[in-house]
Amino acid sequence: xxxxxxxxxxxxxxxxxxxxxxxxxxxxxxxxxxxxxxxxHEAIIQAELKVIKRNGTLEDLDRTKxxxxxxxxxxxxxxxxxxxxxxxxxxxxxxxxDFDREVPTSEIGRRTMEEIRKYDKVAYVRFASVxxxxxxxxxxxxxxxxxxxHSSPLPKTLHNGQ
Length: 162
Known about the structure:
Radius of gyration: 21 Å
Strand content: 15-25%
Distance between the termini: 44 Å
Number of domains: 2
Number of strands: 6
């Protein structure tokens, strides 16, 4: 590991801790040449999962795209950035567990919808309206009716100010 201060490649690890629920290791290092301390993170590199788009093209799985869609659905809703991170982590982890090489966008959307629904029904409907591409107001109204049948209390500890 190259020291960010002096560029020396000789260092010693002075502390190691697991992070991200054991999926990564955080290490504090000290440069042998200048004594500068810095932090590194070590994690398993997953095989690059490809997303099968609706038009049949493939692209890399991109957490930022998933997060962006969730943020848009949660705009002006009482959902913290930490909850959004948790939703992204849950969706990506479940996809990486269940798929080896390729995953259809429909599966990513379905799993994302399920997770959003646990926290905020309005955000869920917003996400569903884009993901499902409702053709008319009747489809939209039907989706809202199905939410009423699956009501469950939202976890209060995951919202701001509650």
